Amino acid sequence: MPFIELSNVDLIYGTASQDAASQTLAVSSATLAIEHGEFLAIVGPSGCGKSTLLKLISGLVQPSRGTVTVDGKKVVQPLKTVGMAFQNATLLPWRNIRDNVMLPLEIVEPYRSRQKIDRDKHRQAADVLLEKVGLAGFGDRMPWQLSGGMQQRAQLCRALIHEPSILLLDEPFAALDTFTREELWAVLQDLWSFRKCTVILVTHELREAVYLAQTVHVMSARPGRILKSSVIDIPRPRTLESTFEPGFVDLVHDLRHHIGLGKQQ
Ligand SMILES: Nc1ncnc2c1ncn2[C@@H]1O[C@H](COP(=O)(O)OP(=O)(O)OP(=O)(O)O)[C@@H](O)[C@H]1O
């Protein structure tokens, strides 16, 4: 049985009491099977329902039709086993980087009840992650003392500190310049091979999707359906050099072609 499964999922925003014109069918008949530890990317035109798919998997919204299951259980409320990172790092400006990373441990059980007893252990776990993303020695700095790329690295640590089984990434690098963004692809690839959680990445950057994912799913224009799923069999670890190889470029072109087809439908 897949770890995460979406079966014929529709999501309509707006309440049933509203007239049809005020409702939005964001996702239509989405069917997806995701294995434990898989890294997948979701691409598609703007507004096609990519973020909505993440909200459905995390339990932030419930399907209007069909079912979402995680680890064999139907998702009926927000899951605690999820870590999330978005386009803006949203670090708390009054906390240093280490304390920002440790924030989920103050909220999510069983860490929350043990935070006083395990304080040193939690600090150590935060420092291990910070080192992993190239921020060793920056734990005591304040967010404003770090560049945008460094803040995004810290955000990835915060998303992983409570050892979630699912990491949801919604355009996490979109606000960064190309060079910083490409550096962070390598950081994320390393983090994934270190933690082996299931990662779902929403991105507009097709090179990013092909560099990072094992499978890339293309969604159609709204209402979003899964149009095509491409297995990316480029060997790992992938490097920036891989992105210039003909096989890589062909995969990117093929994805772009299918997004174009999806827009026309
Ligand atoms: N809370 C909401 N209430 C009503 N409509 C919404 C809500 N959230 C999203 N939508 C609509 O649902 C559709 C899908 O939105 P979603 O954010 O999932 O798309 P997306 O593919 O992630 O977009 P983008 O690529 O631009 O970030 C859009 O038409 C959007 O306007």
UniProtKB/TrEMBL annotation:
This protein's record includes keyword Nucleotidyltransferase: no
InterPro entries, per database record: AAA+_ATPase (IPR003593), ABC_transporter-like_ATP-bd (IPR003439), ABC_transporter-like_CS (IPR017871), ABC_transporter_ATP-bind (IPR050166), P-loop_NTPase (IPR027417)
UniProt keywords, alphabetically: ATP-binding, Nucleotide-binding, Transport
ABC transporter domain ranges (all copies): 4-246
Record's keyword annotation contains Nucleotide-binding: yes
Stored Pfam families: ABC_tran
Any one GO molecular function term: ATP binding
Role description: Involved in beta-(1-->2)glucan export. Transmembrane domains (TMD) form a pore in the inner membrane and the ATP-binding domain (NBD) is responsible for energy generation.
PANTHER family (alphabetical): ALIPHATIC SULFONATES IMPORT ATP-BINDING PROTEIN SSUB, TAURINE IMPORT ATP-BINDING PROTEIN-RELATED
Family affiliation: Belongs to the ABC transporter superfamily.
Protein name per its UniProtKB record: NitT/TauT family transport system ATP-binding protein
Source organism phylogeny: Bacteria, Pseudomonadati, Pseudomonadota, Alphaproteobacteria, Hyphomicrobiales
